[in-house]
Amino acid sequence: MRPDYATEVQQELVLAVRRYWAGPLYGAVVERAARRGLPGPGEDPAAGAERIERELADDLAYQAFGWLERNLQVVKYTGPRGLMKAGARMAGEVTAELDRAAAICPDRLDLAPGVTAPGYYTETDFHLMPGGIHSRDHDGLVYEWAAGSTTMMSNEAVEVHDGLAAHIAALAPGRVLDVGCGFGRTVLALARVLPQARIAGCDLSAPALRLAHRHAVGEGLTVELARARAEDLERYADGSFDVVTATMLVHEMPPDSVRAFLRAASRVLTPGGRLVVLDFYLIPGGALGMFFHLGHARRNGEPFMPALLGLDLPAELAGAGFAAAAIAPFPPGSDPDGLPGRWRLPWTLIEATAGPDGGADRDAA
Ligand SMILES: C[S@@+](CC[C@H](N)C(=O)[O-])C[C@H]1O[C@@H](n2cnc3c(N)ncnc32)[C@H](O)[C@@H]1O
Q: For residue 253, what pLDDT band results from cuts at 50, 70 and 90?
């Protein structure tokens, strides 16, 4: 299901400008910061990021960088040939196609209408997508069309979802749950590399789950999809998975929700099972890297991204019943310190092993 030709042309234009933004324009901001002696040697990342923000406020390259970062998202969704309009024009066709797919293996898709979404989820326009991705049937498709130029996956040496699935496959799990699976990038990749395993995915977005199901049945993959809150994973029994994973979920949750998710993950994991979270936590490039990351959060509709950095994740993981936490840049071998040569998201792999007690026992204690 593709948008009309004129919409595709506009998206190509957005992506072309975004490449210029992520390469030469980003480079110009770095160079102009250096000319002003920014950041100072060994400057604290958080304080330094604020100082750089203040001192570059009058810099034309930084003004253009910030303006484009926000407004390319706006144009992408709501411009004259924006994705929201294309999705709305195709709404009937999309619903018919998702209904057709839903009728195939219907036992593998449970939209659980009784599960309510937290207020922060329904009230935030993540990535500046008006209305979020949870209410209209075509929202999942619009999100899929938009995703590549939001995350700039084209700046990565490997497709991160495939890289993550390969990493998890090496653990040889028999049962894997992908939380916040969206339209299925990680969960489908997992089903491809672990054909014998039980692969499940959950999300709060019914439209995204319907699209993920369509992809799964279209590819002949067996994936159980269901609506569930990451905060409680209520539908899943204690100890029912060997791996719980989540890609780009926790930066969209406020700290209390992240804590609740860690406890829920610990509960549904079998003792010794592995939590494998791919998100944005270790920020390379010191104060300048932090300046770009916090600016991205502000300009891209990511209100909880900064709060994730404030969490002491090793301590939070231990508090949720996990041991052996390992937090490292992703893909393995990425430079943990230097500022990237092009703009990229600070992919971080956060892993830990579920303890013998299980989260449910601890919650009851
Ligand atoms: C940035 S998207 C990532 C989607 C997918 N994991 C991927 O990598 O393409 C975040 C996803 O998490 C889901 N999500 C956010 N908060 C959630 C929550 N509290 N419970 C379940 N899913 C949630 C959103 O609906 C969305 O599909």
A: very high
